[in-house]
């Protein structure tokens, strides 16, 4: 990769969300994304020839603003919203809006307006805030790219037509938005934690860092909300393991095999503290708090063999009552295998086949259980299915190695 190509790739990771969020305040969501995309396209043309500018973020912002203004003038759109946008541009940086002056957080709350369907909220935010491509998001939703693209287009049109305000909502409006915001932040984090596509790095730290940063801001807005604290704890405990998650030769390292000395102890300690604080309130935990508690049990064990699997199963039993998704049931089965043995777990997993046949982790889990039962041919077939469905390069490499070890 040339220096210019590397700089553009790095700028896209670091600047996309900030750029779209800054432009959205002035021009609206739809034009903001178009102008940002055009600015990066111009960088692809110019930077290899002219050199990388000293301040790539400033160059992209200036270029994107010019593209947006040119688009408005070219299309001769002169309704009040466009006139206001041009006035804002001429007037310089606008005043801070809302309780927290953070354009990216305002963009998340704008995309997660309750007037939009939940799937549209999540898809639009992943595109604009996470910088994920339409194919990446479509894989996460298990829908065709064309379907996903239409959802995003309709969501942007509704924001424009309904004149949904670009701001952090008032205190009384926050609860209606928070569920969607947390769901989006969790999905952005997950895409960084383990990318879904083969064309990206297996782990995308800029996405996990941005998701954690935004969740911290939401917690500043809602310091007493248990689910916000739970999600932050879950992210921190998961992010703490990142240094040990991919081997030097590019293979995914499962939790049981990770070098726990490489974990980030500061993040582990902060995550544990948040979990303890929520338990001390005596309030029944929600989904994210239970997931954080499960991760706290895992990260509390100095060795994988010391994991309190009975407690993990008990926490999953609580979670299943709140979230009856087949993915939760699959994860619970992994814990059941450690308590009651692989036979008992395989019965549970096989019952999930209809719902999860297109989910690579289902087949990978099943392969591991069959391996433990010494059903080698069945395990190989399950590994083959998991490999065919997995997109992440590190995960695929790990699954191939596990399959080949069977001979």
Automatic annotation (TrEMBL):
InterPro entries, per database record: DUF6596, RNA_pol_sigma70_r2, RNA_pol_sigma70_r4_t2, RNA_pol_sigma_r2, RNA_pol_sigma_r3/r4-like, TPR-like_helical_dom_sf, WH-like_DNA-bd_sf
Domain DUF6596 per the UniProt entry, residue ranges: 177-277
| Biological-process GO terms, alphabetical | DNA-templated transcription initiation
Instruction: Provide the RNA polymerase sigma factor 70 region 4 type domain boundaries.
Output: 108-159
**Molecular function, one GO term:** DNA binding
Segments forming domain RNA polymerase sigma-70 region: 15-78
* Keyword terms, alphabetized: Sigma factor, Transcription, Transcription regulation
Q: Does the keyword Transcription regulation apply?
A: yes
> By what name is this protein known?
RNA polymerase subunit sigma-24
